[in-house]
Design brief:
Elements (H helix, E strand, L loop, with lengths): L12 H9 L4 E2 H11 L8 H13 L3 E7 L5 E7 L1 H25 L9
Antiparallel strand pairs: 1-3, 2-3
Helix pairs in contact: 1-2, 1-4
């Protein structure tokens, strides 16, 4: 396995952020750190993409935010899931699982008509 980070596939950032925030409120850097640590560094989120996603999801009503203090006592905006965000997480998780299942069927194809 490559030690390089993988680029996020289009459409996966939102579900990753929503899942991360399902564990509790976090500031943007905390979200990025949680994803990086949870995946052993395989997935890293670019700051610009993360903050665009957080702001977009807040506008859509999936997240709410408030200002607070980070672990190092800096002012930070903390995001949390709303009820609407929890529903969106369930829906997107279902869709991602369907996509991954279909992808694995193709990648694991054996037998007649399957390429070697």
């Amino acid at each position: 396995m490559s030690s390089e980070s993988l680029e996020l596939m289009k459409g996966t950032l939102d579900v990753l952020v929503l899942k991360t925030l399902s564990w509790g409120p976090m500031h943007g850097y905390g979200v990025s750190r949680w994803i990086r640590q949870r995946t052993g560094g395989t997935l890293e989120v670019e700051d610009a993409a993360l903050y665009q996603a957080l702001h977009r999801m807040e506008r859509r009503g999936w997240l709410a935010s408030e200002w607070g203090r980070s672990e190092n006592n800096r002012r930070a905006k903390f995001y949390r899931l709303t009820d609407r965000g929890e529903r969106q997480l369930r829906d997107q998780t279902r869709e991602v699982r369907r996509y991954v299942d279909a992808l694995l069927v193709v990648l694991d194809a054996r037998g007649a008509g399957a390429a070697p």
